[in-house]
Structure formats: structure tokens, C-alpha cells
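Progress against Task 2.4 (sequence-to-structure conversion) is shown through the following example record, which the project officer requested during the mid-term review.
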Amino acid sequence: MSPRRRTTSLVQLRYDTPVDGAAFAEASGVAPKGFSETLSATPATLQDRLHARSTFAVPLLHVALAAFWILTGILTLMPESFASATALVARAGLGAGFAKALVAAASITDILLGALFLLPGWMRRAGTAQLVLSAIYLIGLSLLAPSLWTDHFGPLLKVVPMMAATLMVMAFEEKR
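C-alpha cells generated for the chain above:
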């Protein structure tokens, strides 16, 4: 539908119906109201306005969160990042082989959860798993490398708003 037709339709809705509703009111006991009067009787609530404002923001946030998980997993598998992450985990006294397996498994899990987060019917389960995994990452990395909390790039600080955003997207998932 062209923007012109939508605009014209909205302009036409401003005019009240030019018919006499007396016969209808007499037969039904209900007096017909014009469009403006009907809208005035039931103004938009706060929930209506919030829902309208979130129509585009929540799906965008949904895709951004999925991309975050997928790209984080992919980037961690890159040679330099993988070596750095493996060294961090190995410093905890875990063997190098176990550290490599753990980092690889975490990266693949991130990619999988990001992809599942986009699939209808899987979003809530994937989101819940993301929240649990994020908490595990926060606890584990806080023990392994507490300095990540004060790192100027804020690698651990960023996880907290990402968790809040995941909760928000999950709350808006219900369609009816």
C-alpha cells in the first residue's frame, strides 16, 4: 500500500459518518458514535504506547542479541583469540588440552545458542540457556581473571546488560 493511500485513509477517518443514526439508535438502544468520539472514549493506555514503540525495537534487539552470541563464538575460534582464551583457562591449573576443549565447546555452544535464539519455538529455551551460560561465564571468569571486571573494554561488565536485554526480548516473545 502506498503512503498516499494510508494518509488519505487517515484523513477520511477524521470525518464523522454523514448518515442519520436515529433509526439504528431507536432499534438497538445504542447511539452510534463518530470515529473521534470513539477514540476519545478509549484513549491509548501506557501499555498500548509501549507496545507500539517496541514494535521495531524488540525484533532489532532480538537479532542483535543472536548476532552477538554467534559472532562471539566465531571470533573466539579465531586463532589469536582462541590462544588467548585457552591460556586464560589454562592459568587456572587446568591442562592445556582441557582448556582448548573447554574454549572450543563454549564457542560452539555460543554459536548454537545464538542460532537457536532466532528460531521460532526455540527462543525462550535458547534465551534461558544464554542466561545460565552467561552466569557461568561471569562466575568462572570472575574466579579465573577478576581483573576483567576493571578492564577498560569491560568484557564482564557488558554481560550484565546483555542478560537484561535477553530477559526483555523473552518477555516480549509472547504474541497474544
